[in-house]
# Entry
Amino acid sequence: MPIHVDVVRVFTDERGHHGNPLGIVDSSTVPVENRQSVAAKLKYSETIFVELPAPGAEYAHAQIFTPTTELPFAGHPTVGLSWWLYERGTPVRSLEVPAGSVATRRSGALTWVRAKPEWAPEFSLYPMGSVREVEAADPKKFGPGHHYLWAWTDRVEHSIRSRMFAPDIGITEDEATGAAAVRITDHLRHALLITQGRGSQLHTTYDPAGWVEVGGLVRPEKSHTV
# Structure
């Protein structure tokens, strides 16, 4: 039976360029035991399976998969799904994922989610001396693990340039990584504007009480079936 996949691009720039593609699948169409294989077939850095909420519901349950593993939390899938649910007329106040309850909100054109830093994977953080060093890095030189390279572009404005490599979970290089944005924001203890990959844009806020928000722009892409 064909499986319908909606696709959005998360953390684009203001012109709608760049961003990280996300596959969104109605979980009722794919048994739990088949979701990993579907994500592997789709080959997006993440695919999210959602129990579609009824109109007026305050939350929705979801599962997130890379091509090789399930994640308890990830940023670009939760931001993308929150935007998609809002656009289809069933907005929710939170997404229930294995890590916990991810609060969501809209502010102008930006869609935001809130998470605890410990929900995100551990990232090896590599502060680089310049943006040029970040852009020149070779993903093939990094082994297993989650590797996040970054450099300041403007210390006053708290903006950074970054890249992320995670070959052991099937992601040679991720275009935009919300979970890494949560981790680096917690590490630097300040709201950030992050340019990642080829030019994706991620915004964060920092709460000393132990929460980080990550937000950005989302645009629809063409849906398809597998």
Q: What stands out?
A: The first strand starts at residue 4 and ends at 12. The helical segments are 35-42, 75-87, 131-136, 178-188.
